[in-house]
Design a protein that fits this description.
Blueprint (H helix, E strand, L loop, with lengths): L14 H20 L3 E2 L5 E3 H5 L4 H5 L2 E4 L6 E4 L4 H12 L7 E8 L15 E8 L4 H16 L7 E6 H11 L3 H13 L2 H11 L3 H9 L4 E3 L2 H8 L5 H20 L4 E5 L12 E6 L8 E5 L13 E7 H7 L10 E4 L5 H12 L4 E3 L14 E8 L2 E6 L2
Parallel strand pairs: 1-5, 7-9, 13-14, 13-15
Antiparallel strand pairs: 2-4, 3-4, 5-6, 6-12, 7-10, 8-9, 10-11, 11-12, 15-16
Length: 395
């Protein structure tokens, strides 16, 4: 048996990658701090109901379960940090009503299955959440912060796909879809199975206007002109549908004005996270990469089960994905100073002084004194001259 093998999809990082990941993590936290987002570190494990209560069955399927040996309760290894941050906002921090709260995080999550074939089951999730404000300003702020996050990779050709779950919710209410019919239609939308939708609409016996709108929705995807088409084709969808379309138009206008190089696409049939999202949903892509590089949306009320139903909007991405998008991921490795192993008080003081200045100082190990400074990552050495320890170039 090969005892050194890791489980499929479980990652570890050797020094070059680990150093690059840590450097990027620091960049991101500095960025978020400059926007007023405070760093939190939720635990790796929580009681199962706390992790999954607000996020639906899909997250539950992605969660590894273990038993707490102290009390027999089921616990879960976090598969998503968002519900943990929501718990912190609504229960631990207890903000005043109407007071916004900006939080950010970086941490490893563990999932039972990778989101794509051969992918990681232990991504390093990075994200930012804004609680306590419902409206355009907070959605726009969070998307802008996500775009600034992605720009740290050096990539300029970012594509943003936008949707809004309020369109389907409003349409379902206007048409009169019951819960079972919504589930069936959602499944067909996810697969964009137009013939199946047509056959189902005939079977259900909806009126002509309702059938036309439900048939139109899966085709409403493309550039921002889709919003004009949607206003025409879903004009009978009711106030909630029209309000969602107007919201998207205003948001797109603000984003295009602030980020002229950004490509914005609209997909009104995108309903991933329909069970917990309450407004806009979005994902960011880079052409040729093959999968999304960040995602987010609005999920008002997620904290209700934790004691406070606060408005919420946020995004998340994967630190490893961000690093892979950088053309140059190497972190300059500073060469160190090799110090002898002498038990000399002046030498010990000199080493402490150099380390305090940010230098890397490596003590020579006996009986390996013959090992060269270069092989130990050093380009300089500490030598004693006239009773004083000084830095010299390694020979």
């Amino acid at each position: 048996m090969k005892y050194w093998l890791l489980p499929d999809g479980i990652n570890e990082s050797l020094p070059p990658e680990a150093e690059a990941l840590e450097a990027m993590r620091r960049e991101l936290l500095d960025l978020y701090r400059s926007w007023g987002y405070r760093f939190v570190m939720p635990p790796m494990v929580e009681y199962l109901e706390s992790l999954s209560i607000a996020m639906g069955s899909q997250l539950d399927l992605q969660t590894f379960k273990i038993t707490d040996q102290t009390n027999g309760r089921m616990m879960g290894l976090r598969a998503d940090i968002t519900p943990q941050v929501s718990r912190i906002d609504s229960h631990r921090m207890q903000m005043a009503p109407g007071q916004p709260n900006r939080l950010c995080y970086v941490g490893t999550v563990l999932r039972t299955h990778s989101e794509q074939a051969g992918g990681s089951r232990s991504p390093i999730q990075v994200g930012a959440e804004l609680f306590g404000h419902a409206g355009m300003e907070s959605d726009y702020e969070v998307i802008s912060l996500m775009l600034d996050t992605l720009q740290l990779t050096g990539r300029k050709n970012i594509v943003l796909d936008l949707g809004h779950v309020g369109i389907l919710r409003g349409l379902a209410a206007e048409v009169g879809l019951n819960a079972q019919q919504q589930d069936i239609y959602l499944d067909q939308l996810a697969r964009k199975s137009l013939p199946e939708i047509d056959a189902w609409l005939v079977e259900c016996g909806f009126d002509k206007t309702a059938c036309a709108m439900l048939r139109a929705l899966p085709n409403l995807h493309g550039d921002v002109n889709v919003l004009d088409e949607a206003l025409a084709q879903l004009s009978g969808g009711g106030k909630e549908v029209l309000a969602a379309l107007e919201y998207l138009q205003q948001l797109v206008a603000r984003l295009q004005a602030a980020y002229p190089a950004l490509t914005v696409n609209v997909d009104l049939a995108e309903m991933r996270g329909y069970t917990y999202h309450t407004g806009i949903v979005y994902a960011a892509y880079i052409p040729g990469f093959g999968r999304e590089i960040a995602r987010g949306g609005r999920y008002d009320g997620i904290g209700e089960n934790f004691g406070s139903a606060r408005p919420a909007t946020g995004f998340s991405t994967n630190l490893r994905t961000l690093l892979s998008l950088r053309e140059n991921t190497e972190v300059a490795s500073a060469a160190g100073i090799l110090a002898p192993s002498d038990d000399d008080a002046a030498l010990t003081a000199k080493i402490a002084e150099l380390r305090a200045q940010g230098e890397i100082v490596i003590r020579q190990l006996e009986p390996l004194a013959t090992l060269s400074a270069t092989l130990q990552g050093c380009d300089r050495v500490l030598e004693q001259h006239n009773g004083e320890w000084r830095i010299a170039t390694a020979g």
